[in-house]
Amino acid sequence: MFLLSSSASGLQAQLHALQDYCNAKKLTVNAKKTQVMIMRPGGGSGNGKLAAGESFEYAGLPLEVASSTKYLGLTFSQLSKQHGFASCADVLAKAGRQAMFAMRRRAWELGACLVEQQCMLFDVFVKPVLSYGCELWGVDVLLRPDCSSVERVHRWFCRRVQGLPKQVTAAISLAELGRQPLQSFWIQQLVRFWNRLQNSAVDEDRVLGWAFKDNLELMREHPRMAH
C-alpha cells in the first residue's frame, strides 16, 4: 500500500486511519517493513530527510525514512523540480539494458541474427521493460531537453544491430530501420491512459474515477504541486 499526503500531519493522520481499519478487520501491519519517503523537492530538511520536529509512527512504533522505494515495479525517489518522476525511467533503463543483452545473447544462440528478427525481439522483450509505467513518468521524460536514459538504450541497439559507429546520428540509425523513437510510443500510451481516466470520471462506481477526481481536487488545493 502506498499512502500519499501533501503534509506531514496529513500522512500521520492516514497512518492512524490505517491502524484503526486494521484493528477493526483484525489485520496487522509490519512496522519494520513500513517506510516513509519525503518526495517533495528539497523535502523535509532539504536533503530528503525529516525536518526538525517531523516524525512518523504506526501503532506507537517509529517508521524508517527511506531515500527511495519500489512499488508495483517502479522505483520512486525524491522528486526533482526539473525532472519530476524521471528517476523512475533511469532505473528502468538499467533493467532494459540487461534485458537487451540477454535477448541478443539468446537470439545469437538460436541463430536469429537478421536485423528484422532482432528488431522484432527488441519490441517483444525489451521495449515493454523500457516503457513500463510510462503513463506516470512519461510526461516528465518528454519535457526533458536531453535524450532520456531509456531512449539511449534504444539508440544503442539501433546502431549496434546495424554495425554503425557511435558517431552516426540517432536520426539516421532509426531511419535506416524505419523505427520511431520510444517517445512516440509513450505519447500513445499517455493519450490512451488519459482517455481511460476521462471515461472513468463519468462512472461514479469506478475506483479509478474516484482517484482521478481526488487528484484534480488536490491540484486545486495545492496549485504548486501541479508544476
What do you see in this structure?
The strands form three sheets. Strands 1-4 form a two-stranded parallel ribbon. It contains eight helices and six strands, in the order H-E-E-E-E-E-E-H-H-H-H-H-H-H. A hairpin with a 2-residue loop joins strand 5 and strand 6. With 227 residues, it is mainly alpha-helical. The mean pLDDT is 84. Helix content is 56%, strand content 7%. It comes from Chlorella vulgaris. This is Reverse transcriptase domain-containing protein.
Number of strands: 6
Strand order of the largest sheet: 1-4
Average pLDDT rating: 84
Structural class: mainly alpha
Q: How does the major sheet shape up?
A: 2 strands, parallel
Strand content: 5-15%
Contiguous runs where pLDDT drops below 50 for at least 5 residues: none
Q: What is the rounded Rg?
A: 21 Å
Number of helices: 8
**Helicity level:** 55-70%
H/E element sequence: HEEEEEEHHHHHHH
Shape: elongated
The CA-CA distance between the termini, in Å, is: 26 Å
Protein name: Reverse transcriptase domain-containing protein
Organism: Chlorella vulgaris (Green alga)
Q: Key features?
A:
227 residues; mainly alpha; two-stranded parallel sheet; two-stranded antiparallel ribbon; 7% strand; Reverse transcriptase domain-containing protein
List the helices and strands and how they pair.
Elements: H1 8-25, E1 35-36, E2 57-58, E3 61-62, E4 64-65, E5 68-71, E6 74-77, H2 86-110, H3 115-131, H4 134-142, H5 149-162, H6 170-177, H7 182-202, H8 207-221
Parallel strand pairs: 1-4
Antiparallel strand pairs: 2-3, 5-6
Helix pairs in contact: 2-3, 2-4, 2-5, 3-5, 4-7, 5-6, 7-8
